[in-house]
Amino acid sequence: MMIKLAIALLFTGVAGSLSAAPLGLPPVPIPENNPQTAAKIALGDKLFHDARFSADGKVSCSTCHSQAKAFTDNLPVSKGFNGLTGTRNAPTVINAAYMKTLFWDGREPDLEGQSKQPPINPVEGGLPDHKPLLAVIRKDRDYVRAFRGVFGVAADAISMDHVAMAIASFERTIVAGDSPFDRYYYAGDKKAMTAAQIRGLAIFTGKGRCVSCHTIEQTQALFTDNRFHNIGIGFKKIHGREAQTAEQFLRAKRKGADVDVTVLTKQTMSELGRFAVTENITQVGAFKTPTLRNVDKTEPYMHDGSLATLEEVVDFYNNGGRVKETDPVSGFLSGGIRPLGLSKGEKKDLVKYMEALTSPDLERFTKR
Amino acid sequence: MHDNSRRKFLKQGGALLAAGTLSISVVELAFGKGSEDRFTFAYISDSHITQIKGNRFVRNWDRGLIRAVAEANLLDPRPDFVFYGGDIAQLGKPEEIDHGLEMLAGLRGKVHYVMGEHDYYLDLGDYWRKQLGPDHYSFDHKGVHFVVLNSILTHENWMHRKWDSGMDRMKQMARLDNPNGQPFMVGDTQRDWLKKDLEKVSKNTPIVVFSHSPLQKIYKGWNFWTDDAEQVQALLKPFDKVTVLYGHVHQIQTNQIGNISFQSAMATAWPWPYPATYKQQASYMPKLTVDMNRADPFFERDATGWQFIDVHSGRVDVNYLLPDNTNRTVAFDEKAGHPVDTKYQAEVNRIPPQKHY
Fold first, then answer.
1. Which CATH architecture has domain B39-349?
2. pTM
3. Residues on chain A bordering chain B, Cβ-to-Cβ distance under 8 angstroms
4. What is the CATH number of the domain that holds A166?
5. Is residue A293 part of a domain?
6. Closest CB from A279, A282, A338 relative to B323
7. CB–CB contact B66 A225 (8 Å)
8. ipTM confidence score
9. In 3D, which of B59, B92, B41 has the Cα closest to residue B243?
C-alpha cells in the first residue's frame, strides 16, 4: 500500500516538470509563468555558477550554496565579495523549491524573487545594481544564444527577470528525498532506519515536540510548516532593547533603507526577523522554520549559524530555547518552545534520527 | 492647537509601530474629521493563569500573557493606558491572581482592570479587590468618560448558598453548558451607581464601558450573556456615542444596538468557537462541548491575541493583533453607523459561522 502510494506520487501532478517527485516529497510546484525546460534549467545552472556577477568577480550563487556542501557553505554566516560577512547562515538550496517564502525572514515569495537580491547586496555580490550583471550577459555570446533560445529575446532585451527565472528553474531540479526515513516511513521498509533512529523518530513526534513545526504528513514530509517562530536564537542580542531596535529599524525603513541590505549588515536589526518584512509586532524575532532534510550535511545551524552541531541544537531546544539553562527567556519567545526534559539517551536518538534524513544521492549534485 | 497635536501624532504614528498595525485608511479617516483628542490604549484579556501545583503554572497560558505584555510594550506612540478585560485567573486562587499580576507588572504605564467570573467565584472577589481595588468605577480621559462594571455577578441567593467550598462554587461557574450555572448580571446596586455616575456626564460626551461579559445577550449556555443587559443599555441610551468593550468570549464579535457599539476582545489563553445562535435550525445531534484550547493543535497561539485600540472623535476602532495570522481591524464606520471589519465586511469575503460543537 505504502509502496504503491510512493510510486503514484512519482508520476502525478508534475506536468511541465522534468523531475518526478522523490519518495517522501510532493511534486515540485512549478509556476505557470515559468515552466521547466531542459534548456532553461541548463542556463540557470550556468548562471548559478557564474562568479562574474559580483564586485570582485569571485562570488557566485554557488559560493554560499556549494554543491559539494549540500548547497550551503558550512560557515556560520556567509562570506561575500572581499570576504565581507553578513548576519545570516546560508540555507540549503536542496528542496527550496517547496518553500512558500524565501530567505530566513521570508522577504521574497518565490525563487524568482530571491536570486535578484544577493548580487546587489553590499556584503554579498557587492554590485551597485543589476546593470553590470546584465552587461556581462549581453556581451557573452553563449549567454546571448541561450537566452534567445529559452526566452526568445535579443541581447539588449535580456532582463533580470529572465536571469531569475532561469536560476529558479535550475533550483527546482535540486530536490532530494528518498532518505532512510522516507524508505522507513513511506515505503514500509522497516530496516531502513536503525533502532536508535526509530526511537529518535518517536522523540521527534512526541516528547521532543519537533514535529509541531518540522512537519511530517501522511504521504510526504517537508519538515517545515512554512511559518515564522521566535525560538530564542540570537534574540539575546537585543534583549531589553526590542522597542528601540524596532523603532530604529522602522525609522530607517521609512527613510528608504532597503530591508535586504539592512538585515544583512546590521547585527541588531537582523534579529527582528520577520517583523522587518511585515512590521507586525507579533512577529518580532521570528524566523522561518527551515527544512530538516539533509540537516546532517548543512551545519552550522540556525539563522545566525550560532550552533555548530546537531547535539548543540538538541541541547538548545531541551533547555527551552536557551544555549545555557541560566540564559534569560524572552517575552517574545514562541509558546511552543519549552524545556523538554530529554534524557541523554533520548537526545542521542534524536540526533541519530536526524541523520536518517539525508538523501542517498547528494553526490549527483556534485558531478559537474 | 488641536491641529498641531494631531499632526504631531500623525507624524509619529506614521513613522513608527502603529503604522504596522493600523491600516493607512484608518489613520486618514481619523484625521479627516472631528476635533476631539485622539489617543490609543492597549487591551489584553482572558489569560486564565492556571496553577498546577506550588509554583508550577500551565505554561502555555503564561506564555500567552507574557508575549502580549512584551508586544504591547512595543507600541509606539505609547498607548495612554492598558486595559485588562478580566479572567486573570482560572480558578480565582490568590496564587493565580498574583502570578498573573506579576506578569502584567511588566507593562509600561497604567493598567485598569475589570473583574472576570474566574477571578470572582472562589471568594466573591475578595482577593482581587484586595490587590486591585474597587470592581466598579469610572474615570475621564481626554474627553471620554470611561466606566468599569462588574458584570459577572449573579443571584445573591445562589452566590451565598451553602456551598461545600468556594472552589465548589467556582467550578460550577467555570463550566460551559452547565445546567447548574447561573446567568451573569450587573445587579441593582451597580445599576443605581451607574445611573448616578452618568447624571454628571453631558449627553455628547463619548462613553466607553468596560465589562467582562457582553452587555448584550448572545448565548446563554456559555454566559455570552448579561441578564440585565437591557436595563444597562437603557441607562446608556441617552448618550450620543457609546461603546461597550468586553472580554470573556475569546473571539471577535461586533454589534450595534441603537446608539451602542459592542466590540469584544480576544483571549491570550485559548479561543472559543462561535456559539450556535437561535436562528439556526434545531439540531437533533447530541449536544457536546469539546474543550478547544487551540484551533490548530500544532500552533499553540492560534486564534488568540490582544488588542490595540484607537479612540478618535469619541469612536472606537479595535485593532486585533493575532499571532501568525492576519491582523484585523474593526473600525466604527460613520456612514454605516456601526463598527465594520475593514477586511471581512463584504458578504463574499465572510468567514462562515462555525456550527455548534
1. 4-Layer Sandwich (3.60)
2. 0.87
3. 211-213, 215, 225, 227-228, 242-243, 246-247, 250-251, 254, 278-284, 286, 330-336, 338
4. 1.10.760.10
5. no
6. A282
7. no
8. 0.86
9. B41
